[in-house]
Amino acid sequence: MDSEALKLENQICFKMYTAEKEIMKMYRTLLGELDVTYSQYLVLLVLWEKHASTVKELGEKLSLDSGTLTPMLKRMETHGLLTRKRSVEDERSVIIELTEKGEALKEKAECIPSQLVGNLSLDLEDYKKLDELLTTFLKQVKTK
Fold first, then answer.
1. Pairing with 74, which of 4, 8, 25, 133 sits 20 to 30 Å away (CA)?
2. What is the pLDDT of residue 130?
3. Domain membership flag for residue 55
4. Which residues pair with 95 in a beta bridge?
5. In the chain, what is the greatest distance between 2 CA atoms, to the nearest angstrom?
6. For position 59, what pLDDT does the model report?
7. What is the CATH number of the domain that holds 60?
8. Which pTM does this prediction carry?
9. Taking a C-beta distance cutoff of 8 angstroms, is the pair 73, 43 a contact?
10. Partners of residue 85 on adjacent β-strands
């Protein structure tokens, strides 16, 4: 057996795990002013694009199950960022919509992507390569 294969520094999963932890630290700092968590920020990103979505659509888009998503959406509703309403057409479906307060956070958040890229210390070309590679990787992993 190849002993190199079992070294921690040769594990791509560990590199991805460590990178994710470091990026989350950066996001925690950047999102502090908005008073939202990273997961809540992701919900806001989707809603800023569409303004409204069902819980099911949000779960599919964010790769989150309803057991994780529902309590988070309740907290966001309590903080006045969104509303949750049963669909008139299908009572099993819950529609999530931004409030004015949730919509207003968009302006404050516009600087976050560029600040994160700046914190990564990657030049634009490397950032684009990383983005492209991760996009390809995720498409392949999700089809397995």
1. 25
2. 93
3. yes
4. 54, 85
5. 61
6. 95
7. 1.10.10.10
8. 0.89
9. yes
10. 95
Return the structure tokens found at 92: 């099993």
44 exposure class (CB count in 10 Å sphere: 0-12, 13-18, 19+) = buried
State which amino acid sits at residue 133: L
Cβ neighbours of residue 122 under 8 Å, at least 6 residues apart?
Answer: 130
pLDDT tens digits for range 72-116: 999 999 999 999 999 888 888 999 999 999 999 999 999 999 999
The answer for residues whose C-beta is within 8 angstroms of residue 47's C-beta and 6 or more apart is: 53, 82, 96, 97, 98, 102
| pLDDT (mean) for 14-22 | 95
**CB neighbours (10 Å) of residue 24?**
12
Give me the number of domains the chain comprises: 1
* Residue 133: C-alpha distances to residues 17, 21, 96, 119, 136 (Å): 16, 19, 32, 20, 5
Closest to 77 in 3D by CA, of 42, 101, 106? 101
| CA separation for the pair 57, 34 (Å, rounded) | 24
Is residue 87 a part of any domain in this protein? yes
